[in-house]
Amino acid sequence: MHATEARAASFADVHVPAHVPFGFAEYFIISQTALPALLYLPGTQPFRLPIRFSAFAISLAAFAWYQVESTTQAPRSMAQPWVAAIMSLLAIMLFHPETASLSAGIAQMGVYFAVLAPLFWAPEFVKTPEQVARLMWILLLCSGANAVVGVLQVYDPARWMPAEFSSVVTGGVAGLGAVTYMGPNGERIVRPPGLFDTPGAVAGPAMFAALLGLVFAVSAIPAWKRALSLAVAGAGFAAIYLSQVRVSLVATVIMLVAYSLVSFRQGRAGRASSFAILAGGVVFGSLTLAVALGGTAITERVASLFADDPLTVYQGARGTQLTFTFYELLFQYPIGAGLGRWGMTSLYFGSSNAASPSIWAEIQFTGWMIDGGIIMVAIYLGALAAVTYSQWRVAMKTQYPRLAVCAAVVLAAGLGPAIMIISFTPFVAQVGIQYWFLAGALHGVAARYGAHNG
Predict the structure, then answer these.
(1) 188 - beta bridge partners?
(2) Which residues on neighbouring strands pair with residue 190, listed in sequence order?
(3) d(CA 230, CA 210)
(4) Nearest to residue 40, comparing CAs of 154, 192, 243?
(5) Would residue 339 be called left, alpha or beta, if left means φ above 0 and alpha means ψ between -120 and 50 degrees?
(6) Cα–Cα distance measured from residue 374 to residue 39, given in angstroms and rounded to the nearest whole number
(7) Do 41 and 407 touch, CB atoms closer than 8 A?
(8) Phi/psi at 417 (5° precision)
(9) What's the chain's Rg over C-alpha atoms?
(10) Strands, E, within 64-190: which ranges?
(11) What is the model's pTM?
């Protein structure tokens, strides 16, 4: 029987072994840390494009394999129609008269789809709640390694800082000066990149280290694993403080609150209380470590979050980019400015269209507005809302306790990238691939339980 015909069979009818062996899903999670970490090594900057592309290419290759070889197909998730709409709009925008070039436009579509593709193929590889827990443990170790290296980069920069930074940073007018702060002894501290080549980049994986570390620290696992998880959670928060990326700190706190509230709503009040108390201790304990390493610049950065009302604080940072998006770009390009005009594709592919100069985009809203106008903004927000709602519904299916616990973790973890759209461009980066991978994985497991929300 041809693969596409075989996939017509009910997904829930496929036999799932009691123990799913270590396979592609696990290697995929590892690759999303290991491949970018190659840029941490000296002499790799000339190969930056293929290294960065490789992490996206794996997702595209997995989708191609899924289309050709898969013998099963999960029921359609709530987000898939939104994803189809996103890619259809991008296909139309490819022919926009101000698209930078055909190659840049196709590359931009490829980046979008590489990020979104795990929603389709991840259900094929992730089959049980136990496997989801294993993936979360691997993600904790990978993110934790990133966070620990980030802390060490401030403690002993001569040993742990990468020998080379991204030319995107060093080639700017201010160079590294724009991403440094004054340390306790008057030295300049570069915001730690972790296992990457961009200052401050450790803040992303550190969010997941903090959340997952605390989740496992209150789980029914061996004591040494709980202790290790707690240490990783502390390193995650310390790395966030030291990176001075305030949105990551806010997003992480929201992730912790969300997990605690969902756990309480599931009837796990004891677990939720233990988690909340431990989280509070780690938040403040890791701040002490960060201040010892980074000095008063750390407390001043954290205090700046409370210096005024949240909107005013945001407006003083990335808020100007949001204002630019909705008060200028929206009226100049209400249906989009063409593809390949910002981000990686603009940097690496340039423009062969004189009418299409690059547009600077620091936040996801700006990128969406450039790529598809207000329609793209609405569609992608709809996709994120559909994923969150679907995960909430799975988390509330407490008749499947192991599945519900996994859903609570995935839901909380997904809030981080979703919040970061106001300060970063997560959905054209690897954190976006991770978001859609976890969404697809949870949907696949729920479908096997007959608990999906298609």
Answers:
(1) 182
(2) 180
(3) 8
(4) 192
(5) beta
(6) 35
(7) no
(8) -60, -35
(9) 22
(10) 180-182, 188-190
(11) 0.92
